[in-house]
Amino acid sequence: MGEGKIVEVTIENFSFNPASVEILTGDTVRWKNEDSVIHTVRGSAFGSGELKKGDTYDFLFTDAGTYNYNCSIHPSMKGTVVVNEKN
Ligand SMILES: [Cu+2]
Cα separation of 44 and 86, whole Å? Predict the structure, then answer.
């Protein structure tokens, strides 16, 4: 089983960009905060601490499914990770 890839999601202007990513099991999503205010990544199966500007948070997805998440400080900031089974 090889290394998964890393997919980047930028946090900027109070939004996750791209708001939806589609990956395979074994891939990692790396969120990076480019805003000068603190944000978080909060999902049911994963979650970051407080991310200052320039901070990153990585999560490796091992289970297929659709994962909705938001920022715990600004709950209207929403994103989705769709994880498909790697064949
Ligand atoms: Cu936020």
Answer: 22
**The overall pTM is greater than 0.85:** yes
Separation between Cα atoms, residue 11 and residue 18, nearest integer Å = 9
Right CATH for 6-84 from 2.60.40.420, 1.10.3720.10, 2.40.10.350, 3.30.565.10: 2.60.40.420
Q: How far is the CA of 8 from the centre of ligand 1 (A)?
A: 17
The pLDDT profile of the chain, 87 residues, written as one tens digit per residue, is 568 999 999 999 999 999 999 999 999 999 999 999 999 999 999 999 999 999 999 999 999 999 999 999 999 999 999 999 998
- Coil, helix or strand for 19? coil
Q: How far is the CA of 87 from the centre of ligand 1 (A)?
A: 35
